[in-house]
Amino acid sequence: MADVLTPQQRSHCMSKVKNKNTTLEVKFRKILWSRGLRYRLGRKILGKPDLVFVSAKVAVFIDGCFWHACPIHGQKPKTNTGFWSEKLAKNILRDQTVNIGLADLGWTVIRFWEHQLKDDVELCINELVRTLKDRKQNGA
User: Residue 133: what pLDDT?
Assistant: First the structure.
């Protein structure tokens, strides 16, 4: 099925897609804050993590299923497939490069899929808490 919007209309729509402070991110942050987990936002480190725990050197990314090509929920658009295949492949490569780069700098990277936070936020919080404890015990 062809796109029903003109290229200009589609461009406008895509420019309105939020890349930070999404409803899911804000909800997750509020839960963490309410449990006494203190993080920082907007730290200028490699990859621009969604949350940073500076003293433990833990960077948290919340990856959207579409934009980061989730193997479970990622859907490839049916129009302009060449562009989207290349775009999503670059996103995956960038994520891998960021993970390696941060690890080389002594950071631990945690990536949560959008669906993980929606399906079981407690599981994600437990993983984060475990990682923070491990990092503090090991002198990060």
Answer: 95
- Whether 139 maps to a domain, the answer reads no
- Enumerate the β-bridge partners of residue 62: 112
Q: Indicate the number of domains in the chain.
A: 1
Q: What is the mean pLDDT of residues 92-121?
A: 96
Please indicate, yes or no, if residue 9 is contained in any of the structural domains: no
Q: In b/e form, how buried is each residue of 34-55, taking b as 16+ CB within 10 angstroms?
A: eeeeebeeeeebbbebbbbbee
pTM attached to this predicted model: 0.84
Q: Would you say residue 41 lies in a domain?
A: yes
Here the tokens at position 45 are 């480190």
Residues 6+ apart with CB under 8 A from 127: 110
